[in-house]
Each structure stands twice: as structure tokens, then as C-alpha cells.
Amino acid sequence: MIETNFLIIGSGAAGLTLAVKMGEAFPKKRITVVTKAHQAESNTKYAQGGVAAVFDLKGDSFQKHMEDTLIAGDGLCDRAVVDMVIKDGPNRLKELMEWGANFDMDASGELTMGREGGHSEYRVVHHKDSTGNEIERTLLARVEQLRNIHLLPHHFAIDLITEHHFSEKKMEELSCYGAYVLDQISGSILTIKSESTTLASGGMGMVYGHTTNPEVATGDGIAMAYRAKARIENMEFIQFHPTALYDGKNGASFLISEAVRGFGAFLRNGKGDRFMFEYDKRGELASRDIVARAIDFEMKRSGEDCVYLDATHLDINKFRCDFPSIYKTCFEKGIDIAEDWIPVVPAAHYLCGGVVVDTHGRTSIERLFACGECSYTGLHGANRLASNSLLEALVYAGRIFQYHSKNLPSPTTKTLPKWDDQGAILLKSSEVLDHKTSELQTLMRNYAGVVRNTEDLRKASLQLEKLYKETELLYRKHKLNTALSELRNMVNVSYLIIEQSLKRQENRGGFYNENFNTTHLNKTL
Ligand SMILES: Cc1cc2nc3c(=O)[nH]c(=O)nc-3n(C[C@H](O)[C@H](O)[C@H](O)COP(=O)(O)OP(=O)(O)OC[C@H]3O[C@@H](n4cnc5c(N)ncnc54)[C@H](O)[C@@H]3O)c2cc1C
What we know:
Helix content is 36%, strand content 16%. By secondary structure, it is α/β, with parallel strands linked by helices. Strands 1, 2, 6, 7, 8, 9 and 18 form a 7-stranded mixed β-sheet that branches. α1 (13-25) packs parallel to α11 (388-406), α6 (220-227) crosses α14 (482-503) and α12 (431-447) runs parallel beside α14. The radius of gyration is 23 Å and the shape is globular. Flavin-adenine dinucleotide is lined by residues 9-15, 34-37, 41-44, 46-51, 131-132, 156-157, 200-203, 212-213, 216, 220-221, 255, 350, 372-373, 387, 389-390, 393.
């Protein structure tokens, strides 16, 4: 058994910021960070645009940033949270810069700000088009300097330890005492006992198969919290990016930026028809939600696996110059943009809901905290404003730290049971898991994707029940491995998405059920 003062699950912006702040403030305390792949692998690493924050209080204002956030959130944001996060944002970014983050600046040393969809001002702090990578680099370098932080890569958190694991169960007062963690190299399962545990385990794009998220994004933290009976909300609000490169496979997909449509590329279906004007008078330049819905509709209508972006009529030399990495990635995959259409599909991009937390990052379970994409704070409401997610991760890591500074958790005297897998057998082949994962992803894309309807959601619920039973059977009989745990987690997360989608009786923000609005596809947002 490992004993630690603070256990953090995940090494993206949220988890590492918390680790660094705890490590600096409490040199005598032990901070353990477990992360299931290489320490840098995370959604954070792939964030391109940047972090929204108001630094110029003359040209911009906190009020304007708040209004933009509230408009995107479509009536479901918590105003007090929006106010708190937006005002704290600049402090968190200054701190990152003190730790060594290089954000783009002009010749006079002022931050140069980008502007993204939904923002009324230039306020996105960035490092070229690889801001997330710069944040991750900075935080990992700082972690390395702090000797009281124990970073354990390739350690997969399986389940939170709560009263459910004790023989005398007192369910009315749930507390978290740490987690069971699989050492992915040795295969052994560790019991990590901790006075305080924070979930910073990121998003769940892999549930849909087509996603901009990396493979680690399987919603593990949310599934663990759900099994531990924490409150989980707003899981129906998922942002889909309309044009991810389709290469016939499930898994992380390369983003074809919206700027390519802005540059003049057409969207065509398999028959070669430009279809966007059937859905919106702005054609390819309609908003992200509308384009994603129109593509989804075309794919369902034709039964084809993708639609196409056609840039063959454009100035290819200029295209290569403006979009070098898109040109190169397509070329490497055998797509010559001068001659070929680019196959694209909508892809799961960001989860707005998650484990419900208060303004200190506390979940509904004692000693359990959550921050970053796995949490639901009330900032995003029904839809996320671009570049507000890294902001939320940084601010809530800071809030959890502040809470601990004033309320250090007492040591726990509980004796934790060891993980018991006696009698479990080794799963001989991974084929069955691959098959079930792909079945789940197809089900979620077809029945709980960009455009939903109540009948499909009910069908999804029934099919998922069967998949749940099959997965639980595999889980009980076999020794745990990463793929089996991830499948189990994705089944739990899918259940939450479907159930919470069925409960929502209106279209709002990123949620769309065609039963509630028959003019959906021509609707201009
Ligand atoms: C392509 C792309 C572009 C984006 N661009 C932007 C942008 O410009 N601006 C913006 O604000 N947001 C952007 N986002 C969203 C943003 O990157 C994420 O919301 C944010 O980075 C989440 O940070 P996090 O720390 O909560 O999670 P992550 O960065 O995803 O980190 C989660 C960590 O938890 C680990 N983990 C997960 N499960 C387990 C487990 N069971 N056991 C142990 N470890 C586990 C993972 O390995 C990972 O280390 C983008 C996202 C993507 C995918």
C-alpha cells in the first residue's frame, strides 16, 4: 500500500497545476500524481487556440468576457461561477508565466491576444498554435523541480475507495480514502491511501470513436465518480467539431480547421453535391453546430461514412502556405488537396458536463475533489465558449489548493481492503474488447451523436443495457487490464449521456433532439 497526503488522478493542466501549487506550499506533504500513459499525454497537450483571459481592462472588460460566456452557455451558466472564474483567470496565467510559460508577446513585451468564435474581443492568450503543449511542458518542468511530488506515469486509476469497499457500510456519509491503481507495466494493483483525492482525468471523446481527443480520453474519472455515487450532471452537452479528417478508423482524428471553410473550401456529399445551402443560407460558413448537424444528416441520409471538403478549386500554393500542417498530414495519408477531396466527419471535441463541484472544487463525496474537463462547475452551462476550458482547469486547480490551505484534511485511520481478484483469470485475447468498444462507439455515434431523437435514445439505452451486462461479466471473471477498465468506464459514461439526454426536454446550447424542433436544420443560431 502507498500512503500519500494528496492523490491527484491525471496530469493535464488541471492535475499538474494543483500538484505544483500543493508541492510549493506544503514541502513536507507527499503529493502523488497518477497518470495512465506518458505524463504529457492529455487533451491539454493538443490544445491549439489558447486560454481566454482579460488583461487589457481599457479595451476589454471582465463584464464583456462574462457576457460572451453567458451567451454561449445558453441560459445554463452559474453567474457567480462565471464571475469568479473570469476574474481569477489573469492571476492563474501570470503564475504560469512565473513558472516559465512562454506566451506570444509583441516587441514591447505585451501579450498578443487572439480572438476566437463567440468572443467579442481579442483576449486569447496563446503560444503560436500549440498553447496546450507549452502549458504541459511548463508544468511538467516545475513538477520535476519539486521533490515532494511523486509522478507515476503508466498508472491507471481503476476505482475510488469509499465506504462501498468496507464490510461495515455507512452509505449515508460517503468519503473517499484514495484509489485502486493498476501499474500498467507490472500488472499489479496498488492501494493508494490518501487524505484527499482529486479527479483531474479529463474528457471522454473516445466514447464516440470519432474524436479530436487522444486515446486517453475515455471518461474514467466520471465513471469512477458515478460508481462511487457522486453527483454527475449535464452529460448531454457535448461539443462536436464538424470536420475531423476521416481515415476509416476509430480513434483520435486530425482536425481540419474551420479556417479551411473560411478559405473557400466546399462541403460535398458522396454524390458530389454541395449540400450546406440546403441547411443554412450562409452555406459552409454557418456556425459550428449547424455544420456538424448538416453533415450528420447527410451521412444518415446517404448511409455513407463521411462527407468531403473540396479545396481543388482554390489557390493551392496559398493553401499550402496558410495551412502547412493540414496539407502535410493529408498528403501523408495519400490525399493530394490539389486533386482530391478531403474525407471528413463530425467528431466529439469537448464535454461540458461532468462531476458536479462547488466553488472549492468539492464533489458530493467528502475528501473527493474534481477539476478540469471531468468536472461540472457551472461555467460552461449548455455550451463552452472557445478557450474557456483551459481557463476553468487552471482556476479550479487554484480553488482546490486554496481550500486545502485553509482546511487541511485530517489523516484517516481507516484500514483499506486490498484489491481482491482471487479467482480471476487472464483475458487471453484483446479481440473481444476491441469488438465491444467499436460496437459501443458505433451505437453512440448513431443514436446519441450530433443530432439525437427520443426513439433512437431509447434504442441506445436498450442496446447499452446488453453491452453493460456483457462487460460486467468480463470484468468479474477476468484480471483487470487497461482496455477492460476503459470499456467499462465508457459504458458507464455512455449510460450517463443517454439518460441525461432523455431527461432534457428542450434544445439548448450544444444539445439537439430533433423531436423538439422540426425546423432544426434551417435554424440559424
Ligand atoms: C484538439 C484539441 C484542441 C483544444 N483546444 C483548446 C483551446 O485552444 N483552448 C481551450 O481552453 N481548450 C482547448 N481544448 C480543450 C482542453 O484542451 C481541455 O479541456 C483541457 O486541456 C482539459 O484539461 P484537464 O487537465 O482537465 O484534462 P486532460 O488534459 O485531458 O488531462 C487528463 C489526464 O488524466 C489522465 N487520466 C485519465 N484517466 C485516467 C485514469 N483512469 N488513471 C490515471 N490517469 C488518467 C490522462 O492520461 C491525462 O493525463 C482542446 C482540446 C482538444 C482535444
